[in-house]
């Protein structure tokens, strides 16, 4: 095989952020809080 190191399936990897978490973090960084509005009809 090529010189790539092959990791076992159960080898420990650094936990990755899920796509949802990445998106949420990006959204928080980019959008100031005053732009985030509740949906129409959502009271609370």
UniProtKB/TrEMBL annotation:
It comes from the Bacteria. Residues 1-44 are annotated as: Disordered. Residues 7-31 have a biased composition (Basic and acidic residues). This is Uncharacterized protein. It comes from Microbacterium maritypicum MF109.
